[in-house]
C-alpha cells in the first residue's frame, strides 16, 4: 500500500510547527498506525532526516500513551480504540492521512506528535487517592464490597488517562476523565472519609486547566476504555453532594 502522511512537525514547545508531507510505499494492511510511523521513521533515518517524535509504551491498548489525532479524530477512525490498535486496513491504497498531536490548550505540544498531559496528573494528585494512617491500615477484606460494586468501580478505574476525551471535546473538557476518577472512588467504602474534599479539589483542579463539558458526547465515543457518559454526571453530583454536606455542617 502507498500512503501519503501529512505529519505535524514541531521542534519544541516554543517553536512554530507545520505539516510535512511524506510517502510510505510499503505499508501493509496488518500494520498498526504506530508501526506505520515506525516504518516512516526508518525511511527518515536512512535519509538522514530527524525521525518523527511520538509517544508509545505497551502497544497493547493498556497504557494510553500513544494518543494522536488521525484525520481530526483522536486515536483514529475506529471508535473506542487506541492508536496502537488502529490498523492501516482502515484506509485505502493511495489515501492521505493527517497525523497531528492531541489538540487542546491543556495539552501543550512538546515535540512533533508528543504532548504534555501532566494537567491530567495534577487532577489525580489533587484528590485521586485514599489516605490511611500509616501502620493501621485494615486488612483488605475488613470492609466487604459486593461483586457488582467492585466490578463497576473497576470499570471506571479502567480509564488510562490518554487524553482522547479532551482532544475530542470542542471545549477541551476533562470531565469524562475527572468523573471516572471520582466515580471509581465514590463507590468504595475505603474512600468515603475524604469523599467531599476529594470532589472539590479534583473538580477545581480540572477547571483550572480544561474547559466545561460541551454536552456533545464525543468523549465517550473516542475513549479506548469505554468510560460511559454517566461519568460526567458524577462530576456535578459529587460537587453538589460536597456543597450540601458542607452547608449542613456549617
From TrEMBL:
PROSITE patterns linked: 4FE4S_FER_1, 4FE4S_FER_2
Cofactor(s), names only, from the UniProt record: [2Fe-2S] cluster; [3Fe-4S] cluster
One GO molecular-function entry: electron transfer activity
Domain of life of the native organism: Bacteria
Keywords on record: Iron, Iron-sulfur, Metal-binding
Single biological process term from Gene Ontology: respiratory electron transport chain
SUPFAM superfamilies to which the protein is assigned, alphabetical: 2Fe-2S ferredoxin-like, alpha-helical ferredoxin
Record domain 4Fe-4S ferredoxin-type: where: 150-179
Pfam families on file: Fer2_3, Fer4_7
Transmembrane segments: none
NCBIfam families, A to Z: PRK07570.1 (NF005746)
Family: Belongs to the succinate dehydrogenase/fumarate reductase iron-sulfur protein family.
Protein name, as recorded: Succinate dehydrogenase/fumarate reductase iron-sulfur subunit
Organism, as annotated: Sanguibacter biliveldensis
Amino acid at each position: 500500500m502507498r500512503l501519503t502522511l501529512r505529519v505535524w512537525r514541531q521542534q519544541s514547545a516554543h517553536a512554530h510547527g507545520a505539516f510535512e508531507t511524506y510517502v510510505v510505499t510499503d505499508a501493509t494492511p496488518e500494520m498498526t498506525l504506530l508501526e506505520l510511523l515506525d516504518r516512516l521513521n526508518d525511511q527518515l533515518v536512512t535519509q538522514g532526516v530527524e525521525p518523527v517524535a511520538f509517544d508509545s509504551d505497551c502497544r497493547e491498548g493498556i497504557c494510553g500513551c500513544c494518543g494522536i489525532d488521525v484525520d481530526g479524530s483522536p486515536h483514529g477512525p475506529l471508535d473506542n480504540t487506541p492508536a496502537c490498535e488502529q490498523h492501516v486496513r482502515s484506509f485505502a491504497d493511495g489515501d492521505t492521512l493527517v497525523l497531528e498531536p492531541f489538540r487542546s490548550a491543556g495539552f501543550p505540544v512538546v515535540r512533533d506528535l508528543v504532548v504534555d498531559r501532566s494537567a491530567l496528573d495534577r487532577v489525580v494528585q489533587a484528590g485521586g487517592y485514599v489516605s490511611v494512617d500509616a501502620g493501621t491500615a485494615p486488612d483488605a477484606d475488613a470492609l466487604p464490597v459486593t461483586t457488582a460494586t467492585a466490578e463497576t468501580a473497576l470499570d471506571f478505574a479502567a480509564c488510562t488517562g490518554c487524553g482522547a476525551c479532551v482532544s475530542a471535546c470542542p471545549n477541551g473538557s476533562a470531565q469524562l476523565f475527572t468523573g471516572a476518577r471520582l466515580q471509581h472512588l465514590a463507590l468504595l467504602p475505603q474512600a468515603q472519609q475524604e469523599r467531599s474534599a476529594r470532589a472539590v479539589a479534583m473538580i477545581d483542579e480540572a477547571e483550572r486547566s480544561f474547559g466545561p463539558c460541551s454536552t456533545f458526547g464525543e468523549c465517550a465515543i473516542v475513549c479506548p476504555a469505554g468510560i460511559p457518559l454517566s461519568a460526567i454526571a458524577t462530576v456535578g453530583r459529587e460537587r453538589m453532594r460536597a456543597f450540601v454536606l458542607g452547608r449542613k455542617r456549617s
